[in-house]
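REQUEST ID: PR-0412
SUBMITTED BY: lab tech R.K.
PRIORITY: routine
TASK: structure prediction, single protein chain
INPUT:
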Amino acid sequence: MKIIGIIPARYKSTRFEGKPLADILGKPMVWWTYQQAKKVKGLADVFVATDSEIIEKVCKELDINVLMTSDKNQTPTDRIYEVSTLIDADFYISINGDEPLVEPETIEAIIPKSKKKDKYVANIITTIKDPVEVIDFTNLKVVTNKAGYEVDIDLPGFKKDEINAQLDNGYLTISAAKGLDKDEEKKNGKYIRKERYAGAMSRSFYVGDGLSQSDIKAKYEDGILKISVPKMDKKAIESSKAIAIEG
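STATUS: complete
OUTPUT:
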C-alpha cells in the first residue's frame, strides 16, 4: 500500500501573499512543514505541490520534493487531484503548508491501516481552545456527538438561494456563488460610482455511501450554513440528489 503526503502551496494568497516562504528562524515556513511531514511513519514520500515558480525554486534549493501544478486549481483538493494524475498511490494525505509545528503523530492518526475499501476520506478535527478561533470564519467548525456531526460553514454575504448542497455517491458538496453590480449615477446619466463583486466557494466532504438525501439536514441562518450528518450506515447508495436548505 503506497501513501504519499502532499503539501499544497500557493503563492498568491489573498490574505498573506507568499505565506509558504514566510521566514521562520532562517527557513521558509514550507521547509518546516516538510521536515515534520517527512517524520510521519507510513508515508512513502512527501511532495510540495505548487503553481509558483518562486516556491518551486526555493524548494529545489532546499532539497524539497516539489511538483508544479496548474494555476487554475481553485482549492488544495483540486491541486491534490492533479498530483494524483501525476503520481500513482493508494492514498493521498493533504498536509496544510502553514502548519510548521504539526506533530507527525497527528498525521499518522488519519492514515488507514489497510486498503479494505475503494474509498477512504477522512479529516482530522480538534477541540477549539482559543476563543478567537470561534469567530474566525476561515475555520471550519464541526460539532459531534454519538448521534452525528454538525458542520458549520460561514458564508457571509450570500443569500440562501445562492447556496447549493449536493449529495453524490457519498460525497456532500457545498457550493456558493454570487455576482453583484451596484451602480450610482447622477440625473444626467453619468456614473458617480460603479461596483462589481463576484465570489464563489466549493467544499466537498465524504459522508459515507450509505447516506441518503433525507438523512442530511441543512439550515442557513445569519450567514452560517449548518449541516447535520448522522452517524449511520445504510446499504443503499443514493445517486446524485440536491439537499433542501432551510432558513
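NOTES: The mean pLDDT is 83.
REVIEWED BY: pending
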